[in-house]
């Protein structure tokens, strides 16, 4: 009996299997990574705002807080977020219900079209709407003025209302997706039992369906609210020229105007603290307003829900849907490509004015554009791979090993979810430009670090979801078949979550490709990303080139999105 | 008086993947007032669709449905009453209690729709909760309650308006076996108290037989038999009904010279009489495991393949020709594995060996 | 082949002790069942044998070899214990075909390809899955997946197979079929099998011996199925092994009466020797009660239910309701009782207990 002899402590460890030790090692690595990428930048912001040369100093913060310009920016941020959330929720809800519970035709097509704005980079959308509705030169406004013969434009997109409109176009899918899936999962007998109880269709919607989707609405609305509060691209592109600032654009402006001086960054950091406070307050307020329980509505045998017959409203509703989709999806896409093909901005959109030169230029000639494409691919792929792997590791620790300190991991990992990108960028600058004797400023690595921190939450969520599908007994089965913990991981768990990991990669790759906010603060002379390049070319006034590059970006994103769909569909087939 | 009447009811679905499927095929049915009537059948047999046609969740493809003397669906007059106007009570398999309302409000919902006075609502809900053993849980939310309690809420909600007809769609199949048995009694008691007409859909033959005054067995959208539970159990009209009502042995036999040879029996025949009206030269003999005796001598010679002790009875398996036969015996007659014995069939049902429905068709129907 | 031995094993999750001072000896080639209500720690015992739980104290031996011992500081990880496990949720790996699933343990044992192939074929034949070797698990029914899990466990170990409620996710018909096959398989292979379940029917059907456990993780009775069923040591075991009636009785003038203030019902002329108390319980299974027209113990039929192969009656006896079941076939022959009729009860195989315990929480 070999094993019954007393053994040294180390040998016993080995006998103990890997579970205990592997777990501890993974936990320590995970905490370390999250502290460096997520916690440190946040701490650096707080330190730099409230401490000066190691002593507490709140003067800067007080000064920033009382500046009327900053207060104005804060007020704008809140106003925009309020209207975007309220209206975006209504729009999303309306279309989700129409597609989920009425007999409107072409559902499949519309369902996929309604998600398109979700992938469309909002700042490119803002550019497109600028081209269409800027007060003097927008194509629609020009057409309108020539038709009416007057000098008043149809709509001025360079305004708060314009910003709200564009943000709604790109954020309503949050609610649409949440509510659609809630309606799909909802047990139809919940509604049927109300019919049997004597309630007519309208009463059922009012008393049963709506209350049951409130949690989904709340979740979607919360996403809109956070996104809008921290959003940079749309107000930057539509607001700067009219001196309309929001907190994120104001932070950028402060740092940009000071040409990256430490004082400027400190001021930016102060506003960042303010922005985070606003976000947190808004979230708390919304939680209070929509205190909704978590209902379990996924049950029962799947049956077709009873669809409401629209009868004479069928065609008008269809027209509204198609018109809406046309306006928010087709029109901006069309104008970006159309202007991208123009010989010069301002020429009428006629075939004889078209050329492929701009596309040729951004793809093969312009160093800035080509660098941007290269950089963005490099950043998105590396951020995608690193974040996906690290996220999977952390998720494995949280979901499967469940060590004592897993709460910290969850908080740290999901924190960036509610931290605005611009704030994260400020934190990254403060951390990695020499303060800790590591200077990555102007290099591509600083952007990579920012991306990793920013998208960690995505990766963590998707990896946790796919790991939870892998029941513990699957790994235990392989242990009892003679495989060690590590071999079980390799042979069973990894292959099972591989599709999830690939999907997780794309969930990071795609937003990284269209990222603007953090890159804009962190880029150096040779590290422009696609977003930055489009933005700067556009600001320089070279609109046709900007549109061509935007067109290229959109094509890349569509391709990526297509691959992602293929992967997720394959998974469902299993 | 007939209370639920179906005349030539047919329902077809058109699906993308499987084409046209007739879920319910020319069903004629009269359910009497105060009767407890079950629809029994495998999944995809059309029993739930029939119930949903009565409830009004699906429109007919042809035929008529009447509740008493009131028509609720007449296809060729294009008449269709929506579910909320049919005045029925219904309980669903997945309970379908509303998670955002507490027990009281769930049960009060139908009364609120009828705009009843506050005192009436209070009184009726209290009564309904009392009858379903839920008193004291008024303020609880469904998520805080067990499956059995949730199904009781659904029951209370269905009876609170005192409807004449109660539709139950596999109400017990999401509960564990013990609870299922208890709830079975409670439903029966409720029916005795209020004298509802109950239409009960289930795939569990024990449940159907325990509860029903009459029942029907359905397969492939067609009614196979309508009868009282005992009549149906003792005289199943075809092999499908026989098989669906309990454990069954189906023994294929060849008939020659008035003798009955099990397939693969090497010339040994079974001692039984051929029914006078049976004229085919092959047959399926159906028997239940508890209707067969094992004898030390006589009977069809066989060898015990296995003996399982199953608490109340002992189960033996023996080969009769090529067919394995299960025998359940309430007394231990001392047979061991490998012992020789004689098989005596105490009751046999004769079915034609010809009719067989293709499994593929059955699979296809399961999808809808 | 191997015997399994647990000596004074204790296991707790955090502060909650699941099993304490638990000892068990399963013999080589035996089919042994741990039967008990959920939760009673029976799965924990199984997991301790497999190596998924650590011991707070005690020792586990497989085939004479200590695989876990608190005192000797030994803990062999699951992969080194050479036991096959079948899980309640099948745990068939969805990304591998049936054959690959069964091959995996052989691969880990580094068994040559040729030999593996033969073994896989043989085992798949044993579980009647030969035709499905190339299928992926999602193309299989629940019962077929469970067969794959069984085959995989058989290949993983020819010593000890642990089964954790393997049939409880299957529907009733399939469950019945599978229990028969497990029994068959055990006879063919001669493995030591430890089977965990809360279903007494399965336990009685397949086991050589059964240990009935209570909610506190203690073994109440251990023995062969028929003996256990016929002579349960206490009301808990009695109740757990099947449907039961417990009738409160009392001793008056050296005779046994049903406890009832308003009526005097003579239950029996003789007293059980084993019981010293004045009031206690008579236990009888519904199937062991015969209904006759005439007899000493009079009752009234309260309810009749026809359940296909059996007739179930609820009979009023004094203030108690007695459940009676009769084989429907003989009931048809001997005449069926109707609701409201009076009848006589003849109880066979009576047992007496001093108290009655609740089985479930």
Structural notes for this entry:
The complex is a heterotrimer of chains A (574), B (368) and C (361). In chain A, strand 1 and strand 2 form a beta hairpin. In chain A, helix 12 packs antiparallel against helix 13. Helices cover 75% and strands 1% of the residues of chain A. Chain A is an all-alpha fold and 574 residues long. Chain A has a domain of 210 residues: MetI-like (MetI-like fold), CATH 1.10.3720.10. Chain B has 368 residues and is an alpha+beta fold. The model of chain B has no long low-confidence stretch (mean pLDDT 89). Helices cover 25% and strands 35% of the residues of chain B. Chain B has two domains: 239 residues, P-loop containing nucleotide triphosphate hydrolases (Rossmann fold), CATH 3.40.50; 106 residues, Beta Barrel (OB fold (Dihydrolipoamide Acetyltransferase, E2P)), CATH 2.40.50.140. Chain B has nine helices and 20 strands. Chain B has a six-stranded mixed beta sheet, sandwiched between helices. Chain B has a five-stranded antiparallel beta sheet with strand order 2-1-4-5-6, with helices on one face. In chain B, strand 8, helix 5 and strand 9 form a beta-alpha-beta unit. By secondary structure, chain C is of the alpha+beta class. Chain C folds into two domains: 232 residues, Rossmann fold, CATH 3.40.50.300; 111 residues, OB fold (Dihydrolipoamide Acetyltransferase, E2P) (Beta Barrel), CATH 2.40.50.100. In chain C, 26% of the residues lie in helices and 35% in strands. Chain C contains nine helices and 21 strands. In chain C, the strands form four sheets. Chain C has a six-stranded mixed beta sheet, with helices on both faces. A five-stranded antiparallel beta sheet of chain C has the order 2-1-4-5-6, covered by helices on one side. In chain C, a hairpin with a 2-residue loop joins strand 1 and strand 2. The two termini of chain C are 38 Å apart. Chains in contact: A-B, A-C, B-C. Chains A and C meet through helix 20 and helix 21 of A and strand 5, strand 6, strand 7, helix 2 and helix 4 of C.
């Amino acid at each position: 009996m070999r094993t019954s002899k007393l053994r040294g402590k180390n040998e016993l460890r080995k006998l103990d299997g890997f579970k205990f030790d592997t777990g501890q090692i993974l936990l320590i690595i995970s905490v370390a990574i999250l502290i460096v990428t997520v916690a440190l930048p946040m701490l650096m912001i707080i330190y730099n705002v409230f401490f000066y040369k190691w002593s507490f100093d709140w003067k800067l913060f007080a000064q920033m807080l009382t500046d009327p310009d900053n207060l104005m920016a804060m007020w704008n941020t809140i106003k925009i977020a309020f209207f975007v959330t309220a209206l975006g929720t209504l729009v999303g809800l309306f279309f989700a219900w129409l597609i989920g519970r009425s007999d409107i035709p072409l559902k499949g097509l519309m369902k996929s079209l309604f998600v398109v704005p979700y992938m469309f980079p909002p700042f490119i959308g803002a550019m497109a709407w600028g081209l269409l509705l800027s007060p003097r030169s927008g194509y629609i406004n020009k057409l309108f003025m020539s038709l009416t013969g007057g000098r008043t434009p149809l709509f001025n997109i360079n305004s708060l209302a314009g910003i709200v409109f564009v943000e709604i176009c790109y954020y309503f899918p949050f609610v649409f997706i949440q509510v659609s899936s809630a309606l799909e999962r909802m047990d139809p007998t919940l509604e049927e039992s109300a019919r049997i109880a004597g309630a007519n269709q309208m009463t059922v919607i009012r008393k049963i369906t709506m209350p049951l989707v409130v949690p989904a609405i709340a979740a979607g609305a919360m996403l809109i609210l956070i996104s809008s509060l921290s959003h940079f691209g749309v107000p930057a592109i539509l607001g700067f020229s009219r001196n309309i600032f929001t907190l994120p654009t104001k932070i950028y402006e402060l740092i940009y105007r000071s040409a990256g001086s430490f004082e400027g960054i400190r001021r930016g950091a102060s506003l960042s603290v303010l922005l985070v406070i606003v976000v947190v307050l808004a979230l708390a307020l919304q939680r209070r307003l929509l205190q909704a329980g978590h209902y379990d509505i996924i049950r029962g045998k799947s049956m077709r829900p009873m669809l409401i017959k629209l009868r004479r409203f069928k065609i008008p509703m269809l027209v509204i849907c198609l018109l809406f989709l046309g306006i928010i999806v087709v029109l901006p896409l069309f104008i970006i490509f159309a202007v991208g093909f123009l010989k010069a901005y301002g020429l009428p959109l006629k075939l004889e004015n078209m050329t492929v030169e701009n596309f040729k230029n951004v793809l093969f000639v312009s160093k800035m554009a080509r660098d941007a494409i290269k950089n963005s691919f490099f950043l998105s792929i590396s951020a995608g791979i690193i974040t996906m792997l690290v996220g999977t590791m952390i998720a494995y620790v949280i979901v499967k090993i469940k060590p004592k300190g897993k709460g910290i991991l969850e908080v740290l990992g999901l924190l960036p979810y509610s931290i605005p990108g611009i704030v994260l960028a400020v934190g990254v600058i403060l951390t990695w430009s020499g303060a800790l004797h590591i200077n990555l400023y102007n290099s591509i690595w600083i952007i990579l670090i920012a991306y990793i921190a920013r998208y960690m939450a995505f990766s963590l969520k998707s990896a946790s979801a796919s790991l939870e599908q892998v029941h513990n007994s699957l790994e235990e089965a392989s242990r009892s078949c003679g495989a060690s913990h590590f071999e079980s991981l390799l042979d069973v768990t990894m292959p099972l979550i591989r599709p999830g990991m690939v999907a997780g990669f794309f969930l990071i790759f795609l937003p990284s490709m269209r990222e603007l906010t953090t890159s804009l603060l962190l880029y150096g002379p040779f590290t422009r990303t696609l977003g930055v390049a489009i933005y700067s070319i556009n600001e320089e006034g070279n609109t046709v080139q900007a549109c061509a590059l935007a067109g290229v970006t959109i094509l890349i994103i569509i391709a990526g999105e297509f691959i992602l769909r293929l992967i997720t569909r394959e998974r469902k087939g299993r | 008086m007939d209370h639920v009447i179906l005349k030539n009811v047919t329902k077809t679905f058109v699906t993308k993947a499987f084409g046209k499927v007739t879920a319910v095929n020319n069903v004629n049915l009269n359910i009497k007032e105060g009767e407890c009537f079950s629809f029994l059948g495998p999944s995809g047999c059309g029993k739930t669709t029939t119930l949903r046609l009565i409830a009004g969740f699906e429109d007919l493809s042809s035929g008529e449905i009447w509740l008493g003397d009131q028509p609720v669906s007449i296809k060729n007059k294009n008449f269709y009453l929506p579910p909320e106007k049919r005045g029925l009570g219904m309980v669903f398999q997945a309970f379908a209690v509303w998670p955002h309302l507490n027990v009281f409000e769930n049960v009060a919902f139908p009364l609120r729709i009828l705009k009843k006075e506050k005192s009436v609502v209070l009184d009726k809900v209290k009564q309904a909760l009392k009858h379903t053993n839920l008193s004291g849980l008024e303020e609880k939310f469904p998520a805080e309650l067990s499956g059995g309690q949730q199904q009781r809420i659904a029951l209370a909600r269905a009876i609170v308006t005192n409807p004449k007809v109660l539709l139950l769609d596999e109400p017990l199949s999401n509960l564990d076996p013990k609870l299922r048995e208890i709830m079975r009694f409670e439903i029966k008691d409720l029916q005795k108290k209020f004298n509802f007409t109950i239409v009960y859909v289930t795939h569990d033959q024990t449940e159907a037989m325990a509860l029903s005054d009459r029942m029907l067995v359905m397969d492939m959208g067609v009614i196979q038999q309508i009868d009282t539970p005992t009549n149906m159990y003792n005289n199943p009209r075809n092999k499908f009904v026989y098989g669906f009502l309990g454990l069954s042995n189906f023994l294929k036999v060849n008939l020659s010279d008035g003798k009955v040879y099990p397939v693969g029996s090497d010339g040994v025949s079974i001692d039984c009489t051929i029914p006078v009206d049976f004229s085919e030269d092959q047959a399926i003999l159906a028997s239940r495991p508890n209707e067969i005796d094992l004898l030390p001598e006589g009977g069809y010679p066989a060898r015990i393949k296995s003996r399982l002790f199953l608490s109340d009875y002992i189960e033996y398996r023996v080969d009769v020709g090529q067919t394995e036969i299960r025998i359940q015996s309430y007394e231990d007659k001392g047979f061991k594995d490998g012992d020789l014995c004689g098989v005596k069939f105490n009751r046999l049902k004769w079915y034609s060996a010809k009719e067989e429905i293709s499994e593929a068709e059955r699979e296809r129907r399961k999808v809808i | 082949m191997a015997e399994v031995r647990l000596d004074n094993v204790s296991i707790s999750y955090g502060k909650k002790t699941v099993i304490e001072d638990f000892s068990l000896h399963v013999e080589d080639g035996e089919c042994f069942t741990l039967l008990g209500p959920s939760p009673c720690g029976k799965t924990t015992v199984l997991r301790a044998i497999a190596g998924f739980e650590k011991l707070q104290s005690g020792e586990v031996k497989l085939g004479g070899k200590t695989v876990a011992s608190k005192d000797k500081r030994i803990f062999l990880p699951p992969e080194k214990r050479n036991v096959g496990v079948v899980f309640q949720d099948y745990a068939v790996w969805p990304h591998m075909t049936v054959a690959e699933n069964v091959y995996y343990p052989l691969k880990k044992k580094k068994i040559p390809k040729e030999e593996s192939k033969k073994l896989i074929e043989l085992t798949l034949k044993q579980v009647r899955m030969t035709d499905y070797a190339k299928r992926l698990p999602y193309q299989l029914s629940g019962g077929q997946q469970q067969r794959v899990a069984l085959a995989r466990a058989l290949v993983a170990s020819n010593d000890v197979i642990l089964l954790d409620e393997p049939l409880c996710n299957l529907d009733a018909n399939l469950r019945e079929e599978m229990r028969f096959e497990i029994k068959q398989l055990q006879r063919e292979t001669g493995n030591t099998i430890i089977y965990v379940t809360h279903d007494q029917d399965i336990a009685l059907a397949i086991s050589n011996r059964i240990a009935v456990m209570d909610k506190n993780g203690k073994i109440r009775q251990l023995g062969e199925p028929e003996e256990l069923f016929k002579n349960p040591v206490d009301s808990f075991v009695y109740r757990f092994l099947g449907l039961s009636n417990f009738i409160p009785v009392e001793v008056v003038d050296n005779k046994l009466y049903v406890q009832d203030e308003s009526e005097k019902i003579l239950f029996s002329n003789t007293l059980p020797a084993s019981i010293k108390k004045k009031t206690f319980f008579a236990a009888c299974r519904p199937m062991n009660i015969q209904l006759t027209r005439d007899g000493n113990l009079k009752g009234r039929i309260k309810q009749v239910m026809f359940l296909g192969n059996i007739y179930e009656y609820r009979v009023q006896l004094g203030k108690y309701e007695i459940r009676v079941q009769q084989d429907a076939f003989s009931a048809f022959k001997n005449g069926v009782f109707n609701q409201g009729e009076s009848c006589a009860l003849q109880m066979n195989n009576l047992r007496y207990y001093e108290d009655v315990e609740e089985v479930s929480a």
